[in-house]
Write a structure and sequence with these properties.
The complex is a heterodimer. Chain A is mainly α. Chain A contains twelve helices and no strands. Helix content of chain A is about 75%, strand content about 0%. In chain A, helix 4 runs antiparallel to helix 9. In chain B, a hairpin with a 5-residue loop joins strand 3 and strand 4. In chain B, helix 10 packs antiparallel against helix 13 and helix 17 runs antiparallel to helix 18. Chain B is globular. Classes of the chains: A mainly alpha, B alpha+beta.
Chain lengths: ~300, ~525
């Protein structure tokens, strides 16, 4: 197990370096520049701004400077949010997205796995069809439709919940972002769990368990669930990263101040350091959670060995 | 350089000017105030900065007007009202402005706001180290040495500003600029707290470090969530200020803004303009339409054929039915634009351009004749690409105008949309034929818009060049009343050359809760929170 962890750490370094390098150069080669603004600035002012952010240096020097800075934990200064460093912005926004994400993940796993098992055990019944219809609805209903619908229903008609804001994560402010964020994940998890559970329930070892007269709940919880959950786990690793690194829709509609909006606005405004920071964050978390999933595989399924 | 005493003498001979405008919330008789004086305003996009010398967009300005105060402010009519300065004097040749500062103006840490803070703020705006995107704002009024300092040739301390004493601030211009006093109401020319800036660097505007001299001070700033401002007890007119707390929410999406307005989370907000009629019907007392200094137009790339042909440019411009666009496509009180400077500019009457007096039928007929003259016909139709930045609203307008061109002139238009920064790069590189653009005035003066069409202006993407136009705009900079120069310039650029096709003049359209009192935007759509109050409701 230790060797697996070490191997993963060693693999992560070149992977991240490639990610940083490719992202850095791709971004610099994209049309448009951070210096492009609605007001065409006189060249002398452009030169002063370029010098402040080292944009007047060759791209390779900028790249090496960037690498040196991130080695020291400095993600740079934002070209857009001039009163903040990228470290400030990530420190302010990532915990918001992570909190929404963790709650959404818990909700998605509990409801998704529950619905998937329930549907699989009642295959082709009305319960199965209802759960799967809900799952399909969750997949086809994008969160940019769901978010305003939630506000309309909970904030305007019922007046139960505040229509947006974060307020340091007080629970009334969490509910709607979690609904908007988790619905599509619930749907995906339910579909994968159902498919995997149906396959497992038709396996020989389940048939044997049944023949031995084990009660249904024991068959499901002790024998079927572990192998059935393996495909779900491989989905959950990257899904967890996606869910905790935020969504621009949720951030925009609920004004949460999460990191998802920074990523999209950073790309639109050519805020290179911001886009790089979020790319590195998502890259590192993806590597980390894929490694965790691999370890969990080994713990859950004795057939898997590294 | 003139001595201190001779400058004082010049000031003595000049008129001492002061304003008596109201500078606080005015509560009409019979209005009962709500016990809770908190307001939540939609603040547009997240500001790139609230550092007065670094601000470059209205989202930053509107917050800075609450946090900081300059020499003068602008009232709802666009007139000057005293801020930190209580009066000013100008010498005979209108190049030396001397401001008398009020002695009770304080920073939020209790220090007095002095002339030295203005000297530092002005110098900071031009210092290459600050790299202010608004450094050009100090070049326009020709403050002595601003150009050389920005170029890095001399030190910022050489700028033509000085503190004659703690409460007398003086600005010297290289040439008389008639609208200098209109420019000083903007944050680039605000004072700056030197001690805080030198201590905290770029992070001096964070809530825990900021020192401000406006009616409010910063309590919370969560990027993309909210900014909370609370009363600055040190503000000189704090006693007349009513609102205790103002929260700005950075929401740009019209639909998201309006949902939060409906839910009661916003007191002042924008809304999706496509729903204007319904919202106006449902909330007639909430909808506010006010004039705004902005113009929406299409740029012709005069460097490329056939747009180097005046006949083609005129034909395309004439055949845009602006009445139909403002009335039916937009329908939110915008005015058609025939000239280039907005009609709402204070103290300026735009010229009556010939084509604005014709009927649309006459314009269409003239357009058909001009295009035929230029060699285009049904068998040889004009075809080109219209570039706009990706946005549903611009698309809607582009479709409508392309349909007008097709119907009247048989022109084939290909619509191309690009994401904003890419579109700016494309236009800046001159790789376009016709492009969408808009201009919001930086100060309440016609030249703020008309300058865009001068040869060297960075936003003259169509590369329009006409010596006569440049000469008029140059002359205007030293005239006491440059209206005639502006009118002549507009006639040249639009009536004679049709350098761009003006389409409509902006309005500021908002929904404001009926219990919000004192909401009177000035022509630059600025509403100072210190002028607002909440009625009992």
């Amino acid at each position: 197990m230790l060797s697996l962890i070490l191997k993963r750490i060693l693999e992560a370094i070149p992977t991240l370096l490639v990610l940083i390098t490719v992202s850095f150069f791709l971004m610099h080669f994209a049309p448009g520049s951070p210096l492009t603004s609605e007001r065409g600035l006189p060249p002398e002012i452009m030169a002063n701004i370029a010098a402040k952010y080292h944009l007047d240096e060759p791209v390779t020097s900028q790249y090496l400077r960037y690498l040196w800075n991130i080695l020291q934990g400095d993600l740079g200064a934002s070209f857009v949010h001039k009163d903040f460093t990228i470290n400030d912005l990530v420190a302010q926004s990532f915990p918001v997205s992570a909190e929404i994400g963790v709650w959404s993940f818990i909700v998605a796993v509990v409801i998704g796995v529950g619905c998937g098992i329930f549907a699989a055990l009642r295959q082709n019944s009305w319960i199965d069809y209802s759960v799967m219809a809900f799952a399909n609805l969750g997949i086809v209903l994008p969160n940019f439709v769901l978010a305003p619908l939630c506000i309309l229903f909970f904030s305007i008609y019922l007046q139960w919940l505040p229509s947006g804001g974060w307020n340091d994560g007080a629970w009334p402010y969490l509910v709607m972002p979690v609904i908007a964020m988790s619905t599509s994940y619930i749907a995906q998890i339910a579909r994968i769990t159902r498919g995997s559970m149906i396959e497992t329930m038709h396996s020989n070892f389940i048939r044997t368990a049944r023949a031995k007269g084990l009660p249904g709940y024991k068959i499901v919880l002790q024998h079927a669930l572990r192998p059935a959950i393996v495909p779900v786990l491989s989905y959950l690793g990257p899904a967890f990263v996606g869910i905790i690194t935020g969504s621009v829709i949720v951030d925009v509609y609920f004004s949460t101040g999460g990191i998802g909006q920074h990523f999209v606005n950073g790309a639109i405004n050519r805020d290179y350091p911001m886009v790089m920071a979020v790319t590195i964050l998502i890259g590192s978390l993806t590597i980390l959670f894929n490694a965790i999933v691999d370890i969990l595989y080994a713990l859950i399924d004795p057939k898997i060995r590294y | 350089m003139k001595s201190k005493s001779s400058l004082r003498l010049a000031a003595f001979f000049s008129a001492t000017l002061s304003c008596l405008s109201v500078h606080a919330a005015v509560i009409p008789e019979g209005v009962t105030l709500s016990p809770v004086q908190d307001i939540v305003r939609n603040g547009g996009q997240e500001p790139t900065s609230i550092d007065p010398q670094l601000i470059q967009e209205d989202a930053g300005w509107i917050r800075a007007f609450d946090l900081f105060e300059g020499l003068y402010s602008q009232d709802s009519e666009g007139n000057l009202e005293p801020g930190v300065a209580s009066s000013y004097a100008v010498n005979e040749d209108n190049t030396v402005y001397t401001f008398n500062l009020r002695k009770d103006a304080k920073w939020s840490n209790g220090d007095s706001v002095t002339a030295h803070d203005f000297v530092y703020g002005f110098q900071r705006a031009v210092a290459p180290k600050t790299a202010s995107p608004y450094a050009w704002y100090m070049q326009i009024p020709s403050i002595v040495n601003a150009d050389h300092i920005i170029n890095g040739d001399i030190e910022p301390s050489e700028l033509g500003v000085k503190a004659l004493d703690d409460y007398t601030f003086q600005v010297t211009l290289e040439r008389p600029v008639p609208y200098f006093m209109k420019m000083i109401t903007y944050p680039t020319m605000f004072p700056a707290p030197k001690k805080a800036i030198e201590k905290w660097g770029a992070s001096w505007t964070k809530p825990e470090h900021i020192v401000s001299n406006g009616a409010y001070t910063l309590k919370t700033w969560n990027v993309n969530e909210k900014m909370e401002l609370v009363r600055n007890p040190q503000y000189w007119n704090n006693a007349e200020t009513v609102i205790n707390k103002v929260t700005y929410l950075p929401i740009t999406d019209g639909s998201a803004q309006f949902k939060r307005y409906q839910a009661g989370d916003l007191d002042v907000s924008g809304f999706p303009l496509s729903h204007f009629k319904k919202i106006k019907k449902d909330l007639p007392n909430d909808v506010r339409i006010d004039p705004m200094l902005g113009i929406y137009y299409y740029i012709f790339n005069t460097n490329v054929a056939p747009f180097n042909d005046i006949r083609v440019r005129k034909a395309l411009s004439y055949s845009i039915d602006r009445e139909m666009i403002t009335k039916y496509v937009l329908g939110t009180g915008q005015l058609p634009a025939y000239g280039f400077a907005p009609e709402a500019v204070a103290g300026y009457t735009p010229p009556k351009l010939d084509y604005s007096t014709w009927t649309q039928k006459e314009r269409d007929n003239k357009a058909m004749a001009l295009l035929k003259d230029a060699g285009y016909s049904k068998s040889n139709p004009l075809s080109f690409t219209l570039l706009y930045n990706t946005n549903e609203f611009h698309k809607k307008l582009a479709i409508a105008i392309a349909a007008m061109w097709k119907k009247t002139l048989g022109v084939k238009v290909t619509l191309e949309n690009q994401e904003w920064k890419t579109a700016l790069s494309t236009m800046s590189a001159g790789n376009f034929q016709v492009g969408r653009y808009a201009w919001i005035s930086d100060y309440n003066e016609a030249s703020s818009t008309l300058d865009v069409l001068t040869s060297e202006h960075g936003n003259n993407y169509g590369h329009y060049q006409r010596q006569a136009y440049d000469n008029l705009m140059n002359q205007s900079r030293t005239m006491k009343d440059p209206s005639k120069q502006y009118q002549a310039a507009e006639k040249i650029a639009i009536e004679e050359d049709m350098a761009v096709a003006p389409i409509y003049q902006y309005t500021s359209v908002k929904v404001v809760k009926p219990y919000v009192g004192g909401y009177n935007p000035n022509p630059q759509a600025v509403v100072y929170t210190r002028n607002l109050y909440i009625k009992s409701h």
